[in-house]
Design a protein that fits this description.
It contains 14 helices and no strands. The protein is an all-alpha fold. Keywords: Signal.
């Protein structure tokens, strides 16, 4: 849902590289203060990283989203003078607001779609509103405590819920987050391995292949030797050709 936004921030040719290249980022968890400091930094990289993390962290923390709204208002106060960096920051802040599930922030995003706003801000807001609607469906799944393990952190439990959800887009988002943040917790790796073995939702359809490619990358990026035979068997098996190609690339990168 954010491909159009990504295309304005990253060159399209880099999108495939995001699937294949290791990101080398640590598996840190954000506190409320960490989120507030990151979103207040005016550093595109920090804001993007915090936005990516927020989907499975900081759930139900009003202070975080209030801070994001404040920073967005500061950036867009004088739209005529906004440069590339300010527009990029605005895109990621709007994306972060979409994770709130709070109608008041939905209304705020709606205001940015008005014709008096900068053309790019209008598009970012429309993308964020689309994401907001998706998040309203996902949040009850992500936050469901029926299978919550009290010995694991909220983030690990939230990611596990995403992987178990049966919703391909949410499973893909969880796998992307695991990969990007190098969250190689044994519990999550076992869940990934199990679904890659069962392949309950795998088909030749594009979203399905993309989802399983990200799950395979999330598992491979751990570098754990116990999963190498499984990944090699998948790469040489009877999976969709494009999925086998991705897995072969991951094996070269991580093993």
């Amino acid at each position: 849902m954010w491909r159009k936004t990504l295309n304005t921030i990253c060159k399209p040719a880099l999108l495939l590289a995001l699937l294949l290249a290791p990101l080398g980022l640590s598996a840190r968890e954000y506190s409320q203060q960490d989120f507030i400091e990151a979103f207040s930094s005016q550093n595109v990289y920090k804001v993007r990283r915090a936005s990516d993390a927020l989907q499975f962290e900081g759930m139900g923390e009003p202070a975080i989203f209030a801070n994001i709204a404040t920073e967005l208002a500061k950036l867009t106060e004088t739209q005529e003078s906004m440069g590339k960096q300010e527009l990029q920051l605005s895109a990621w802040l709007m994306r972060a607001l979409a994770y709130s599930g709070d109608p008041k922030f939905q209304n705020l995003l709606q205001e940015y779609t008005g014709k008096h706003n900068h053309k790019k801000l209008r598009q970012y807001a429309k993308d964020a509103l689309s994401s907001f609607k998706q998040q309203q469906l996902w949040q009850p799944i992500i936050n469901n405590r029926a299978h919550w393990d009290q010995q694991l952190s909220p983030r690990i439990n939230a990611l596990a819920n995403g992987l178990r959800s049966g919703h391909l887009e949410l499973m893909r988002e969880a796998a992307r987050t695991i990969t990007a943040d190098a969250i190689h917790h044994p519990f999550l790796l076992k869940l990934l391995s199990g679904e890659l073995a069962r392949q309950h939702y795998l088909s030749d359809e594009g979203l399905s292949v993309d989802t399983y490619a990200w799950m395979a990358k999330a598992l491979a990026s751990s570098g754990e030797a116990e999963y190498e035979p499984q990944l090699r068997a998948m790469a040489d098996g009877k999976l969709p050709k494009s999925l086998r190609k991705y897995i072969k690339g991951y094996l070269k990168t991580y093993y």
